[in-house]
Design goal:
The complex is a heterodimer. In chain A, 26% of the residues lie in helices and 47% in strands. By secondary structure, chain A is of the alpha+beta class. In chain A, strands 1, 2, 3, 4, 5, 6, 7 and 8 form an 8-stranded mixed β-sheet that branches. The radius of gyration of chain A is 17 Å and the shape is elongated. Chain B has 6 helices and 6 strands. Classes of the chains: A alpha+beta, B alpha/beta.
Chain lengths: 133, 292
């Protein structure tokens, strides 16, 4: 059996993944990177994107919105600001939310609300782009 | 000796009180379940965050680091952030937090420090206003917030960091109640600024290797520290909410039980009085008949 590294993916709401895996690919601010067992200590901020977790049973893809990755000899920890498994995303609901937000983002009334909607929209559109059509 | 009617009225009033406390207890129990789940779900993130900070702090040189972790270099003005609930009827929950806050204030003042207070939650504000009114520099109202989430925590964290950036204080400490279980909430003082990793946070032996930072150590610390602060505040908010529901549930459970005891005693007295009256009437009838 291949060597494994300990991996945990947590968001403020819950712990999405915790266990031993073979490899993790993550979107760092300065480029995507892969982490294999015995990686050198490494810390980076993440941009929004897909984290791919490779283990014996296959690949799990999780979409994260920003956060931090911390690689130590012990393993890898990803602290995501927001995270969702791609397999759990309901495409039709997501598209409806995007539609609603587009309307909000062009709403001339409330400046603060428009800014919030635009930010949220960027995240959801990135999430939509990560999904197979 | 109260009349039969008085007793009847009292029993009815205690019964309706009992209904209210019983309802409040059930509402608190339902809220507790949700609050407890939220508090527990947030714990892994806070713990991981703490150990990341602990790793960083070990590597980062304290003097050159950002002010949130290095401090202002002084220790004169302290800000106490006192977090309590918005509502009462929860036994000693808020009293215990305020008691800890008072002893912290006294300790700091005896040491010759200036103390400022920022209150979160109405109950603590009310209790501290009487004694330390002039020292209270602000109050954050959470009555409008239905759920404690990252946005609320960010608002509180923002209020604290803005004051720090403005040089209003050197050290910030958060006083709140940690949720241990339904019956026990432990009042805790937690230092927020300068950021300090908890002593029990696991750190990792790097085996002599050096961390690689991307984009840079300073940039990471700059984004990580405010997040650490709001994470800590969020978990404190969640713990407060869970603790409050737990305390309220316990208090209302006791109140319901006390009301039950009271109803039993009153019923006994009522029945005795009724029996005594019947006996008296019988005696009157019988002695009247005998006299004939």
């Amino acid at each position: 059996m291949a060597e494994t590294l300990r991996f945990a993916l947590v968001s403020p709401e819950r712990e999405l993944y915790s266990g031993d895996v073979e490899q993790v690919d993550a979107p760092g601010v300065e480029g995507e990177f892969g982490v294999l067992p015995r990686h050198a200590p490494f810390m980076t901020t993440l941009k929004s994107g897909v984290v791919r977790i490779r283990e014996a049973g296959g690949v799990t893809a999780v979409f994260v919105r920003g956060g931090f990755a911390d690689v130590t000899p012990d393993g890898l920890t990803i602290l995501a600001e927001e995270a969702v498994r791609l397999a759990d995303v309901d495409v039709s609901r997501l598209e409806q939310q995007i539609g609603d937000l587009r309307a909000d983002a062009s709403d001339p009334g409330d400046e603060a609300r428009r800014g919030r909607a635009a930010e949220r929209l960027k995240y959801l559109e990135a999430l939509r782009a990560a999904l197979p059509a | 000796m109260p009349s039969l009617k008085d007793l009847r009225l009292r029993i009815a009033s205690v019964k309706s009180t009992q209904k209210i406390t019983k309802a409040m207890q059930m509402v608190a129990a339902a809220k507790l379940k949700r609050a407890q789940e939220a508090a527990e779900a947030a714990r892994p993130y806070a713990q991981r965050m703490a150990s990341v900070i602990a790793n960083l702090a070990k590597g980062a040189s304290a003097a050159g680091g950002p002010r949130l972790i290095a401090g202002t270099g002084r220790d004169d003005v302290h800000l106490l952030v006192v977090m309590t609930s918005e509502r009462g009827l929860c036994g000693g929950f808020n009293t215990n937090i305020v008691k800890l806050a008072r002893s912290e204030i006294r300790r700091l003042r005896d040491a010759g420090k200036t103390v400022k207070i920022l209150t979160i939650g109405k109950k603590g504000a009310d209790a501290l206003k009487r004694q330390y009114g002039p020292m209270i520099v602000g109050h954050i109202d959470l009555r409008g917030e239905r759920v404690m989430n990252g946005d609320v925590a960010a608002r509180v964290a923002g209020a604290v960091t803005d004051r720090f950036e403005a040089g209003e204080f050197d050290v910030a400490t958060l006083v709140f109640a940690r949720f241990k279980n339904v019956l026990t909430q432990v009042p805790t003082a937690l230092q927020l600024i300068p950021a300090k990793a908890p002593d029990d946070a696991p750190t990792v032996d790097l085996g002599g290797a050096r961390y690689i930072y991307e984009p840079s150590e300073a940039a990471i610390l700059e984004t990580l520290l405010p997040r650490y602060l709001s994470t800590q505040i969020l978990s404190a908010l969640l713990e407060t909410q869970a603790g409050f529901s737990g305390a309220q549930m316990t208090a209302m459970d006791n109140a319901t039980r006390n009301a039950g005891d009271m109803i039993r005693t009153l019923n006994l007295r009522y029945n005795r009085a009724r029996q005594a009256q019947i006996t008296k009437e019988l005696i009157e009838i019988i002695s009247g008949a005998e006299a004939l």
